[in-house]
């Protein structure tokens, strides 16, 4: 009983389902409701109906005599198949394939749906054997692919791709008929999307080894007819196909098989004759791509033709792209010829080809002042870099002749060219060393070194510079700079450091020293550093009682070069060990007043120390040296100098100077920022104990008073409190993970100092140090409580007309910055305070400049190098939140207060990334134009510098304001400040690049106005005027 | 006068370019007046480019690299407001001599204050039809007439356009 009920229910359900299905079919076919296909597919997927039932339900539609109705029926079936091909049985697929193959012969309106259906079926895993072949045969026979619409052609290609993926063996059974069918299908294809598919199929045919038989040439023809590809995607192309994509996929086809060589190589030679540069580049790159597959068998016949085209391109081209592509092609050809296995009877094609090259290029090397020397040298270098065998042959032909010429030539410029060419050949390459073979150049090592030494001894700057580069190249390769020559090199370099006055030669020498010292540290430690030290501390020649001024000048210059050289060579710990004590000794003498060092020299010593610390990176050995020796010495000297400042009778130490202190700061920060965790914690506690408790135990030469209180403000002396900048350098640049001991007490002392100290340098440094610590302090009640009390005091001091208002303002500014960077919620109330100060009678201008500080990176604190907590895009965020406020207060301000707002605005805009500027500018343009007429030169300059990049890519809003802009810019041409004149001329130049129809109306006016700055009294202004006027003359003229 | 496809001189002598003029402290001092000097005029002229082959206007050699203009042959007197420039065609039969001269002249006319008297001529003894070219260049009306010719103006402007020197 129960069973019967169940069956009955099931039967009823089936009856209901089939009625439903008939309804769906009816609504889709005659009701034209496309959405029903989706519902049907869902039903099939759920198992509600089977494909068989669907076909039965479709019965009438599929056999209708109306092509439209048949089409609609097939469409429904195909759309369902596209979703449900995975559920089909093999027998179902077989029936459906036969059905669809028959439909291919049907009316053309049905064709699209038939192809869609076949495409779905080819994705079936259960496609019965033999179906693949029969589908293909039917498609090739009955569908004339190129007469189909775009989407259907794409369908055919997809069918091919699907079958190639799953039924490779069966398709290969078709023999060359498959290739023939494909060739016929794609012949004449024009759509880039379909071409990408067709090239994909072609590439598969080659890589999977389908038989091409007698259709090889047809296959090549039908693909190569697109070469070189010239395709510009339409604007707003939704498909995103690029020329590059097409080029690469076609290239993969053309260069995919050796069998195409006989067709491809002549084609390349022909296309190289083209006048279109992109065609040339494409041809050359295609040729280079052939190199990886072709061997001498494919190439040998075409080498003379290819070479003459290549030579012509490299010799005559004006384009760097063509030249680069040509040189890579030469390299690729040589490399592929070098790989080919020789048969005993044939000649070595590599040698034949290289002989061709040498014959045409070598003689140009003998004319070093003519233009072709360079392209010839580059070709030979490309050939020689391609393989070891090639380099053997090229070098043995080139080197002796170049070296001989170099030795016989007398003209400086020619010798320089020769040396530069030599350097190109000596460039380190991979060959030789990787196979354990000797470097090809070892044979020429002696003459090369002596050429370098002779050039270093010349007086020509160009020759010397080239020689240093050649020397660097030699040093970088093993076996080319043996010990004796290395020692001689160091000797020459040392001499140049000591004697050479030309700035460019000096720079080249320093670079060379840096590169070689990295490889050969011992030689420099033993032979260069001691001599530099000697030169630094040698007494200047004394004539009578005092050194004559020119001599002391040059003594200073020598010292400066020595100091720079010490920094350049100190890349390895062993050298740092030698050079750092010398630098510290200079500081010590500057402190004691011996050896007459100037404060400039002392700062340059600090720069060198900083550079050494920076180039050492995270090297733990160097970090240890700096931590153990350099920092204690620097702190000790600076504090001794500060204490000395108290008694006026003492000697005058240079380390008291603010400039010198400021130069020591980056040394300390650079070191502390790179310390590893253990040393960093030690550093933090030492610095804090030194400044809070006067604990001097880690400083050398312990001669300090016992009650040292560096952070207590003295009303009459600034020397001691200034050292707070050293505290800042030490504790504010440590990694964020390092905990600062007694940070609360430290903050209290710093706050007190910055509120009460009278000396700007001291209270500013204290404020910076406070801000640096606040910025890194973890969130929590401790921080909030601290900030609350500080803010209260700040507000009170700034709002009252207290004598310490400036101090409070400085602290406000720095704390605001520290909080702004980390997105702290309190930052808003502080920056709002700054905004309100723009209307203050006393502080307005300082507040405006404060916005520069907020928006730009500070060099010594609160930057990423100091591990500060800087959130990304804080500038954009600040700008977005406040620009409207600023504009509003500007509009409501009294006229005499407006300048401060404009200044603040231009600082804010100027520091935004360019993309943001472009989007924000339209709203701000009227204000910026106003800023141009503001009398403050700083505002003018900063506005001009933010306008100029915008003008290169102007927003639409600008075009309506051009009149006003031009008038204001021209007015600034008579500004008393040359910087403003220059900046406004640059803007005028930028305007000339706007679309002609916008700017042509101004041409006459501007040409006339620009005649005036042509006669400006400053040359730098005239230079800009000449540039701008030249461009405006060309505007609207032929030949621009 | 146009280059055509064949290069008149495919492998010319190439001279080294002088470096950028070094900035001195007085250059940036507002109160010091810098007189117009030879080097300044020379710097203006070396931005002029010889579109040696009209096919490749992108990377032509500059007048300096071809030694057509040398600083030695530029003479300025700021006080008397005179400029004299001698230029040397690359080869004695150079068909571009007039064009080069015209380009130099136009460049100076556009770049110098109106008070200057500008004299452009060929370095004596370096060109076959030296006198004829000099005469053309000195004749104000012929220069003006030449610039009315839009084809000629186009070639001159090509030599003077900054696009041509952007490859520096």
Output the keywords.
heterodimer, A: 1040 residues, mainly alpha, globular, B: 168 residues, GMP Synthetase, Chain A, domain 3, three-stranded mixed sheet, 10% strand, MIP18 (chain B), FSCA_dom_sf (chain B), Cytosolic iron-sulfur assembly component 2B (chain B), MIP18-like (chain B)
Brief description of this entry?
By secondary structure, chain A is mainly α.
Q: Can you offer a commentary on this structure?
A:
Chain B: Residues 46-120 form the MIP18 family-like domain. Chain B: This is Cytosolic iron-sulfur assembly component 2B. Chain B: Keywords: Chromosome partition. Chain B: It holds the Pfam family FeS_assembly_P. The complex is a heterodimer of chains A (1040) and B (168). Chain A has 1040 residues and is mainly alpha-helical. Among the domains of chain A are: 570-731; 929-1040. Helices cover 70% and strands 0% of the residues of chain A. In chain A, helix 14 runs parallel beside helix 17 (303-316), helix 29 packs parallel to helix 31 and helix 34 (677-693) runs antiparallel to helix 36. The longest helix of chain B has 15 residues, at 97-111. In chain B, helix 2 (97-111) runs parallel beside helix 3 and helix 2 (97-111) crosses helix 5 (150-160). Chain B contains five helices and three strands. Chain B has one domain: GMP Synthetase, Chain A, domain 3, CATH 3.30.300.130. Helices cover 31% and strands 10% of the residues of chain B. Chain B is globular. In chain B, 35% of the residues are buried. The A-B interface holds A 275, 315-320, 364, 367, 369-372, 413, 462, 504, 976-978, 1011, 1014-1015, 1017-1020, 1022-1023, 1026-1027, 1029-1031, 1033-1034, 1037-1040 and B 7, 10-16, 19, 27-28, 30, 33-34, 36, 40, 43-44, 53, 55-61, 107, 110-115, 150-151, 153-158, 160-163, 167.
